[in-house]
Design brief:
The chain has 296 residues and is mostly beta strands. It is built from 3 helices and 24 strands. It has one domain.
Amino acid sequence: MANKVLRNCVALLLSANTLLFLGCSAPEPATGECSPIIYQHVVRLNPNYSIFVVKINLADPGVSVRVSAAGPPPHGDSVWQTTLLPISEIAARDHYDIAINGDFFDAKATKDTEGAKTGYIKGKPAAPVGMAMTDGRLWHQNTARPYLEITSFNTAKIIDAPGKMPDSAAKQIVGGGQIILRNGIAIKYQSSFATDRHPRTAVGISRGGKCLTLLVVDGRQPSHSIGMSLAELANEMIQLGCKDAINLDGGGSTTLVYRDPVTKQLSVLNSPSDGKERSVADVLGVTVDSPLPETN
């Protein structure tokens, strides 16, 4: 594990990549980390948090980041661009080593029901709410919402310009709900969605767009992890060295899939709040030529 500078806290090393932090903030990012993949699982108590962090060095030629639609578009239905699939199935199909849930989405004849009775099940016609692009093909458009863009130069940026279409350098795009961090400053939101604690998935950018930070925090499970408000999520991204960050879909969708470097099998590392993996409309996937860090 990369060296960490720990201040004003007590930490217990649970495993090579898992830290238990007692009553403290996240560790300060160490100089030089983000090459090519850094993985951390941070556990805190009182209140309880389970936080997963993956740092991706986009400057590394062995690293590739891509956006995937879930299933094929339903036949003869132009309203929906895809069909829902679990993230682990999308990752297996597209040979990703790491994958997280993408944009908020709508699904045909489905209410937003959490838990075991969620209506977001495999095979339902669906569409992301915001922008979606894969390998330069824009397959869903909504310029009213912010989005994460990966360019043909393998540089990441977060776009928040209503009405602005992606330029010719855009290669991959995943939409998000809110920009939570801009130029190192947290953006404040007052809605209950923002101030309540939920499972969250976020992506941050640093090092001139060449370091991508994925953050997944479990929630709605008090004995395990209570989740975060958007302000708390932004603070985590600041502590991790991000300059800009965007909030992706969360709640029961929040999922981190990771390929075990020993067994080569994909598995869900976090604890989704539905009690099982939820099917989604798109994902942000990562492939890596070099071996991934071990998770235990």
